[in-house]
Amino acid sequence: MSARSRYFPPISHCNVSGRDSQTIAADLDGTLLISRSSFPYFMLIAIEAGSFLRGLALLLASPVILVAYKFVSESLGIQLLIFISFAGLKIREIELASRAVLPRFYAADVRSESWNLFSNCRNKIVVTANPTVMVEPFVKDFLGGDKVLGTEIEVNPRTGRSTGFVKNPGVLVGPLKRSAILKEFDDNLPDLGIGDRESDHDFMELCTEGYMVPPDPSATQVPQECLRSPIIIHSGCLLLRPTPRNALLTFLWLPFGFILHLIQVYFNLPPSNGIIRYTSG
């Protein structure tokens, strides 16, 4: 029977207790996280490790990325996200943004059902199409994960900058997730596998038990104090999670906010509580 024809019950049917000696392999977006889209996190990297211009380029390219993801291949859509967000950035800047800025946005999106199962297992592996450098700090420090099997990005050894391309075997989706699990575990395969989409079936089939996490934007979030480490708020350019809608509104407002800020500085006006949030970054 092929991996794609298999039926996996919903995670609500999974018994959480008695898992303290078991190994779990879990997808990230849409599984451990409520949101199925990784776009906001790539936007954070583009802005925090790059610039607002890079973020604007990513936003303008988002319709093309969506069409590629939906109608060509999941892999191509993610490759475009990586190229636009990462190309030319110093790997050190990407690492810093991934460690200092991304965790507070990830932490606000952790799904309770999946976390309850994931946290009760002894060995925790996250297998994701996202770049390892982007998700590993959060997975290890805040979710207690032992290993991240993710997409590896190319770095120019001479300049220390990302080329925007990915290393072989490519973006970790579908059969490549399966191959990564086989390479990591050999014959001692995970006890549990959880995912949220059909392309996750390939690696879930290898596990003794597999469960699907159905899409639910209103799913219960895990209180941040329940995660493995406390969230430390670092300064950053963005306060709201940069979904395409939030990112568009932010870029549309930037010129007006800048003009208001200049007026305030030129006339030496003390900002009132009512407008300070519109003129401050």
UniProtKB/TrEMBL annotation:
Q: Which GO terms describe its biological process?
A: cutin biosynthetic process; phospholipid biosynthetic process
Q: Which domain of life is it from?
A: Eukaryota
Q: Has keyword Nucleotidyltransferase?
A: no
In Swiss-Prot or TrEMBL terms, this protein is called: Glycerol-3-phosphate acyltransferase RAM2/GPAT1-8 HAD-like domain-containing protein
Residue span, Glycerol-3-phosphate acyltransferase RAM2/GPAT1-8 HAD-like domain: 23-213
Q: Which PANTHER family match?
A: ANCIENT UBIQUITOUS PROTEIN, GLYCEROL-3-PHOSPHATE ACYLTRANSFERASE 8-RELATED
Task: Keyword check for Acetylation, yes or no.
Answer: no
